[in-house]
Design brief:
With 797 residues, the protein is mainly β. Among the domains are: 1-95, no CATH class; 101-135, no CATH class; 395-502, no CATH class; 516-624, no CATH class; 626-797, no CATH class. The protein has one helix and 50 strands. The strands form 18 sheets. A four-stranded antiparallel beta sheet has the order 11-50-47-46, with no helix packed on it. Strands 12-13-16-17 form a four-stranded antiparallel beta sheet, with no helix packed on it. It has a four-stranded antiparallel beta sheet with strand order 18-19-22-23, with no helix packed on it. It is rod-shaped, with a radius of gyration of 72 Å. The chain starts with a helix and ends with a strand. Mean pLDDT is 87; it is low at 1-92.
């Protein structure tokens, strides 16, 4: 063997790349140098020369084997070169001691002794040239979960492989409950761990699976998405809705009662309150409902007067009259609300006696007397003149009388004294003739009331004419020069409501006042010159013309009209029917046209009778008379809308049924026409001197009463009356067909006149007039104080 230094040198000479390619060693080593370059076979270096007297040393260690090449032992050596990965054994000496063993491992770095991988052993070949194959080593293999080992020696056992299910020790979510229940209600997943074999997961731990539902808790134990929908202690499904009714089931859907709905509570243990139900309440008549839901409405309870639809007997007449004469009970039906009884129908109440029949209509227990017997009579006045012109009654039977006076008059409330000439008076007496109130209006000039009317509310309307000034309580009214017309409305206590004046310098004379059933006021009279009632000036055609005016309840102008020509037309009275139509009467000379064509007098004054609609349009108009004088003084419309006309005539007059001719100066008459103006009947009251009918009325039964004045003798159908000297007053009662029932006259040698007549609610006859001497109405003589006094008398029907 070359010494190391020489070996290196020789290697250099031979072009060997490095000393590792040549076996270099000391004599003792016998090492040689062998090598291979770039994988080629390299021969081993020459064996060292044996030292003297000694065997040659073992060949030098073979140089590292070139890739895939072989090494040959150097000359004089016996070792052959190693395999590709090992350097050949150095020539000269053996590479190993034959039979020696050493560990070996040919697997990838980092895998030895990891998992199943383990080194093997190799044994030195017999020639000592090197080691044999590595036996018994365990190299990395494909991982498999068929064993518990780490076959691929990566430090992880059974982490992969065709038969591996999971990575040992790995954890994942798991759920063993029925599909579709996970994550509902209480149900939730658990965890499972991969077993060491990797072949399976272990049991699922911690998952919560469905349990039987119970309402003991507010959770969804059976994980079906519904909480407390079932279970032994559950009443209902939370949130479920059902109809409900908490009252007696027999009352449901009766009257207003009805069911509602209720919602199951969130815990499912019960239902909530019944919402919207209507249950029975105490019956009351304050509502139109069947409050207690028993099928009967308003049969009892607060506000109930009677059981709905029940019929009871009734009678609204005066005490003591039921069952007397014709009076009988009727029947009234309780209204549907039970709050009031309906009108009493079918009852027969006391009525005005019909003297043509034997029945006791007024139910006083006596046969009809029909004599006009005296109830009371009174006189008012002093030595001057007190002249009543009109009388009316209200619903309570109170009496209102109006006129004019001079001097002093006391109606029971204190002396009224005129301011000079004629002053107006209005007095209200009760049904017994006692004073309620009385008033005077006027100044030193002339103020006269000619007509009084009472409306449905008991208000008093007075009309007339005046010169000078007059104050009714609403300010002073002053005439324009001559007579002006006035109208005043007082309340039931005599207080001023409103008053109006109409006229210019000539004469405007208001003679008739009436009201309709809604409180409108109609006026009539005559005028010369110009007058404006609120709708524009009306101008007379020459002498006196007729005016008709309609005012509202507050005195506001509704319409006004003028009728007449250059001659004289006078209107004396006015009335209304149930429809609000207007009827007026008076006298005309010349021609007048109310809208139905001219009516021309036959000579001097003729009677006219005209009917206008509520708006003032012509309905019909008529003229009665001949060349002598005739006058319509009073007009009235009865309950059947028939028209009653009273007045006086001279000469002949025909109202459509018979021609009457006056017996002397003038006779009185009464005529009845239907609503269309057709003649029904007419009567003339004749005498040897002068008879005048001044006013006419009818009671609800259709009986007719008229009053007036006569001189000499007169026949009214029940025998002849003769005045005591001067003029006497009279009153006549006829049945609905014009037949005489009774008649009376009163007076003495002086003059007495009946001016007005009215009826109270019981049919008693109220008379007003004037007396200059004495008059006895059946209660003793009333004697004037000197001049002309007022009388008021009440007679039975």
């Amino acid at each position: 063997m070359l010494p190391s230094s020489r070996c290196l040198f020789v290697a250099a000479l031979l072009g060997v790349i490095g000393p590792a390619s040549i076996g270099c060693g000391d004599d003792a080593d016998g090492g040689g140098i062998g090598g291979a370059a770039e994988g080629g076979a390299a021969e081993g270096g020459s064996g060292g020369f044996g030292g003297a007297g000694a065997s040659g040393g073992s060949g030098g260690s073979g140089g590292s084997g070139g890739s895939g090449g072989e090494q040959l032992g150097g000359s004089g050596g016996t070792s052959s070169g190693g395999n590709s990965a090992e350097g050949g054994a150095g020539g000269g000496e053996s590479a190993c001691t034959p039979g020696d063993e050493e560990p070996c491992y040919t697997g990838p770095a980092g895998t030895q002794s990891v998992g199943a991988c383990a080194p093997g052993t190799r044994t030195c070949l017999e020639d000592g040239s090197g080691f044999g194959a590595c036996d018994g080593e365990v190299l990395p293999a494909l991982e498999t979960c068929g064993t518990p080992s780490d076959e691929d020696c990566d430090g992880f056992a059974n982490e992969e492989g065709a038969d591996c299910l999971c990575v040992p020790g790995e954890m994942e979510l798991c759920y063993t409950g029925p599909a579709g229940t996970e994550a509902f209600g209480l149900c939730s997943p658990g965890l499972r761990t991969c077993e060491p074999s990797g072949l399976a997961f272990g049991d699922c731990e911690g998952d919560v699976t469905p349990a039987p539902e119970t309402c003991a808790v507010s959770s969804d134990e059976d994980c079906d998405g519904l909480t407390n929908e079932e279970g032994a202690d559950c009443a209902c499904v939370p949130g479920a809705v059902q109809f409900c009714y908490s009252a007696d089931p027999t009352t449901e859907d009766v009257g207003p009662c009805s069911g509602g709905f209720q919602v199951c509570n969130p815990d499912g243990l019960g239902w909530g309150a019944c919402i919207g139900e209507v249950v029975p309440t105490a019956e009351t008549c304050n509502t139109p409902d069947d409050d207690d839901c028993d099928g009967d409405t308003n049969e009892e309870g607060p506000g109930c007067v009677c059981a709905p639809d029940t019929v009871t007997g009734c009678y609204t007449g005066p005490n003591g009259t039921l069952g007397v004469g014709l009076c009988a009970a009727g029947a009234q039906t309780c209204n549907e609300e039970g709050t009031a009884l309906g009108p009493c129908t079918g009852e027969v109440l006391p009525a005005f006696e019909n003297c043509a029949a034997a029945a006791d209509e007024d139910c006083n227990g006596s046969a009809p007397s029909c004599t006009g017997n005296h109830v009371w009579s009174k006189r008012f006045g002093d030595a001057s003149s007190q002249l009543p012109q009109s009388i009316a009654t209200d619903a309570a039977g109170n009496v209102i009388v109006a006129g004019y006076f001079q001097g002093a008059v006391d109606f029971g409330g204190g002396v009224l004294t005129s301011a000079g000439m004629d002053d107006i008076f209005v007095a209200k007496l009760d049904a017994a003739g006692n004073h309620i109130w009385s008033k005077r209006f006027g100044d030193a000039n002339v103020q006269r009331a000619f007509k009084v009317a009472v409306d449905a509310n008991g208000n008093v309307i007075v009309g007339g004419s005046f010169i000078g000034t007059v104050g009714f309580g609403g300010g002073t009214l002053t005439s324009a020069g001559g007579l002006d017309a006035f109208v005043v409305k007082l309340d039931a206590s005599g207080n001023h409501l409103w008053s109006k004046r109409f006229g210019d310098v000539p004469v405007q004379d208001l003679r008739g006042v009436a009201t309709d059933n809604i409180g409108n006021v109609v006026l009539t009279g005559h005028f010369d010159g110009s007058v404006d009632f609120g709708g524009g000036a009306l101008v007379s055609a020459g002498n006196f013309d007729i005016f008709v005016v309609k005012l509202g309840p507050s005195g506001n102008h509704l319409w006004s009209q003028r009728f007449g020509d250059f001659d004289i037309q006078l209107s004396n009275d006015i009335a209304t029917d149930s429809a609000g139509n207007v009827v007026l009467t008076g006298q005309l000379s010349g021609t007048v046209d109310f809208g139905g064509g001219p009516l021309a007098s036959a000579g001097t004054d003729d009677i006219f009778l005209a009917k206008l609609s509520p708006s003032g349009a012509h309905l019909w108009s008529k003229r009665f008379g001949d060349a002598a004088g005739q006058s319509g003084n009073g007009v009235f419309v009865d309950n059947a809308d028939n028209v009653l006309l009273a007045g006086t005539f001279n000469g002949s007059v025909d109202f459509g049924g018979w021609t009457y001719t006056s017996a002397a100066v003038s006779d009185a008459f009464v005529a009845k026409l239907d609503a269309s103006g057709n003649h029904l009947w007419s009567r003339a009251f004749a005498g040897v001197d002068n008879q005048q009918a001044t006013e006419v009325v009818a009671d609800p039964a259709g009986n007719v009463l008229t009053v007036g004045v006569f001189r000499g003798s007169a026949t009214f159908g029940g025998g002849s009356f003769t005045s005591a000297g001067g003029s006497d007053g009279f009153v006549v009662k006829l049945d609905p067909s014009g037949n005489h029932l009774w008649s009376k006259s009163f007076g003495d040698a002086a003059n007495q006149t009946s001016r007005g007549v009215a009826l109270d609610a019981s049919g008693n006859v109220i008379l007003a007039g004037e007396l200059s001497g004495a008059a006895d109405f059946g209660g003793g003589a009333l004697t004037s104080a000197g001049g002309v006094d007022v009388f008021v008398a009440r007679l039975v029907p």
